[in-house]
Design brief:
Elements: H1 17-28, H2 32-45, H3 50-62, H4 66-76, H5 82-102, H6 106-126, H7 131-165, H8 171-185, H9 189-202, H10 210-223
Helix pairs in contact: 1-2, 2-3, 3-4, 3-5, 4-5, 5-6, 6-7, 8-9, 9-10
């Protein structure tokens, strides 16, 4: 699977065309640091030149300075020329992709790749004939899906492990839970809550019922016209409790 990178550089006809074009020559020769120096020199005279945002961002990408590249290319994407804005969006998408590759945290990797997909789609919107952008968006979307599936699998495995660690409710706990829930259905929430709290204090298998206690407490708060500590559906409070 090949990820496509194309460095599009822009020539200038401004007063500072020579340092820009010299920078382009250095870039083509693989001297990205030298090219960056020339572009920065040109920026001294033309700080708002959108072409320089683009070329400087492209150099920063090649040098592995992805955060600096993002800042420059984000400005370049706003160029009025759709063709050049598409190329800037493409380079910015590739920058986000590389940031995602280097991310240690899965959440950061997913966020970066989502940004990459968004900018690739923007590049395609600006230039529907942008074949490399079309190829890359398929690649990034596939890798993003793989990462999301991996995270879901890990989450499910962790949940299974947590479930396995919890001992099953004792027969006594099941009986007390049933009585407590019946009290709640009869509107006697405080009594049901107290019954469960006593059970949790006496029976170690009942520790998993702390969530039931919290939900009953929330119902009590709602019935009293106060804000519950957790978010629940106030319209369905009487049916929100079930036996585990």
């Amino acid at each position: 699977m090949r990820f496509f990178w194309t460095a599009f550089l822009i020539f200038s006809v401004s007063l500072w065309a020579r340092p820009i074009n010299d920078g382009n020559k250095l870039f083509a020769a693989g001297d990205y640091a030298g090219a960056l120096e020339m572009y920065m020199k040109a920026r001294e005279a033309e700080p708002a030149n959108p072409l320089l945002f683009y070329n400087i961002g492209t150099c920063q990408y090649k040098l592995g300075n992805f955060e600096e590249a993002k800042k420059e290319l984000e400005s370049a994407v706003r160029m009025p020329d759709k063709n050049m804005a598409a190329k800037a969006a493409y380079n910015l998408a590739n920058t986000h992709f590389r940031v995602g590759e280097k991310a240690q945290e899965p959440s950061a990797r997913i966020a970066a790749w989502r940004e990459s997909v968004a900018y690739l789609k923007k590049a395609i919107d600006l230039d529907n004939d942008f074949e490399n952008a079309k190829k890359n968006v398929e690649i990034v979307q596939r890798k993003l899906k793989e990462e999301l599936d991996k995270q879901k699998e890990n989450k499910d495995q962790n949940q299974d492990q947590n479930d396995q660690k919890q001992p099953p409710l004792s027969d006594k706990a099941k009986q007390v839970l049933a009585r407590a829930l019946q009290l709640c259905k009869d509107g006697k929430y405080a009594e049901g809550k107290q019954m469960l709290e006593n059970l949790i204090a006496e029976d170690e298998t009942a520790s998993q019922l702390s969530g039931h206690v919290q939900r009953i407490d929330d119902v009590i708060e709602i019935k009293a016209g106060r804000k519950p500590k957790t978010k629940i559906d106030a319209s369905n409070t009487d049916n929100d409790l079930e036996v585990i």
